[in-house]
Amino acid sequence: MMEKKVFELLLLLLNQNEEISEGDFLKSFKDRHPDSMDPREFFKNIYQLHYLSSLIEDERIKEIILHGHRHLQIEKKRGLRDMEIKNISPLTFKYSLEMLAHKNNISWNFTEPYPSFFTKINGLKFRATLVHPCTGIKNQAKLFLRKIRKDIFNYSDFEVPGNGQVFLKERVRACDNIIIAGRAGSGKTSFLATLMGDIPKDHHIVVLEDTHEIPKLSKNFSFFLGQEGQSKKSLKDYYSLSLRLRPDRIILGEMRSYEIIPLILSLNTGHRGVLSTIHSDCAKESLIKMALLFNLYAENPGFSFETSLKIICNNIDYVIYMENQKIKEVIRVIGSTKENVLYENKMW
């Protein structure tokens, strides 16, 4: 089959070169297969993901989800929309995903079935996540592409009014501890970067992430990328390390598991200016989720849920809840009583 010939030659050429031009490929292909049909379209689709080019270059699209060779979804500002993929065979789709992994030196197989990595497509930067066929009952490979913006969003992009912008800028400059909550795709990380733009340029900022999304905004940045399963390289390890690096600010990309332990303990010893995000359905619930995570992942559980919630509510100043790139709720955390959060709404 033509797809197999193209794929095998691409693998051979990739072992010799970091990049393959269309001209070099066509010449090599003609030398090896002089009687074959023109492989140009197969090269473009397998090596360059040409069948996605119009979606990749659409500035309004934030994420592309490929569910197979026929069906995909795109995410714009107002949510997901279904689309069909035309004129792509199952084999071309399969080889295009395998080629994406090879081009980025990523292992994608039965033992490493869902790698996430950064890549460039048509000159644009994406965070890609591949899902191996072995993970599902239908043996269907999938690809998730989230576009990484080069520029930082302004407050106006989130429809924050002027008085709201003044309020948030003051809170960041006052070194308040702020949590940004919301569901997947709500704009948490983008808004986190916007808030970071108001941190004084002379502050030493330590950024901790599991996938690199937060931009560097000044020279005084220290980045650490968590690598779970590797000794001394988890977000928890890096957070503990960051406290010895004289940070003015600590930015934790997302709270998910063990990294919450040193974060909460550092807040309890007086560290200020922490910014982080968490998956949650509302502002208040994010604080309850933090307490649950703290108790779940504590190595020496000695705190009751009530005590954990109290520590968290005594040290988090504000929670911002987002939906669809908009701020829906802002609360000032006052404290807690038993298992209840005390707060006041502060929507400007």
CATH class of the largest domain: Alpha Beta
H-E string: HHHHEEEHEEEHEHEEHEHEHHEEE
Helix- and strand-based class?
Answer: alpha/beta
Q: Tell the overall outline.
A: elongated
- Domains counted in the coordinates: how many? 2
Radius of gyration: 23 Å
Q: What is the name of the CATH topology of the largest domain?
A: Rossmann fold
CATH homology-level superfamily of the largest domain: P-loop containing nucleotide triphosphate hydrolases
Please bin the fraction of helical residues: 25-40%
CATH architecture of the largest domain: 3-Layer(aba) Sandwich
Largest β-sheet summary = 8 strands, mixed
Structure summary, number of beta strands: 14
Number of helices: 11
Mean residue pLDDT:
91
**Poorly predicted parts:** none
Distance between the termini: 63 Å
Strand order of the largest sheet: 9-8-10-11-7-12-13-14
- Report the portion of residues in β strands: 15-25%
SSE blueprint and pairings:
Blueprint: H1 2-14, H2 22-32, H3 40-48, H4 53-56, E1 63-66, E2 71-76, E3 79-84, H5 90-103, E4 116-121, E5 124-131, E6 142-147, H6 162-173, E7 178-182, H7 188-196, E8 205-209, E9 221-225, H8 235-242, E10 249-252, H9 260-268, E11 275-279, H10 283-297, H11 305-315, E12 318-323, E13 326-337, E14 340-345
Parallel strand pairs: 7-11, 7-12, 8-9, 8-10, 10-11
Antiparallel strand pairs: 1-2, 1-6, 2-3, 4-5, 5-6, 12-13, 13-14
